[in-house]
Amino acid sequence: MKEIKFEELKIDTYQMFAKNWPLLTAGSQKKGYNTMTISWGHLGSLWGHNMPTVIVYVRPQRYTKKFVDENEYFTLSILDEKYKSQLAYLGSHSGKDEDKIHNCGLDVEFVDDTTYIKPSKIVLVCRKLYQQSLKEENFIDKKVMQDAYPNSDYHDMYIAQIEKVLIA
Q1: In the prediction, which pLDDT does 55 show?
Q2: pTM above 0.90?
């Protein structure tokens, strides 16, 4: 993988989250790691100096949340379209119950005290800056809350600085 500047990254962010399902991966070789697909997120600039940031959302019951919470870094791995069935598997099986990365034929690579999924075409190495739980009382449009959270299992939101962009 080759490192590029964030400004050089050409990506449709809507497609990246809604259609390509990036893999959110956290953890280390020493303490363990896990991954999950995500389809909600944002890329942008926040908090001065055109800091490139990403916002991701993780439900409290997801096993990957433990690794996101315990580590300073996480990655977003974007795979080619031909890996859609593996992405679906990774989003519907728990790493608590099995080595789901290995079981779907993918592998991991370690970088900057975190890990990402191989073979990615793009990897964003992200350092956490902020975390907050979404709360029922903060929803202005209650229909959105009812549609997205019928079980009241509100996501935790993480804002992270994109510190490194790797491309294949």
Answers
A1: 98
A2: yes
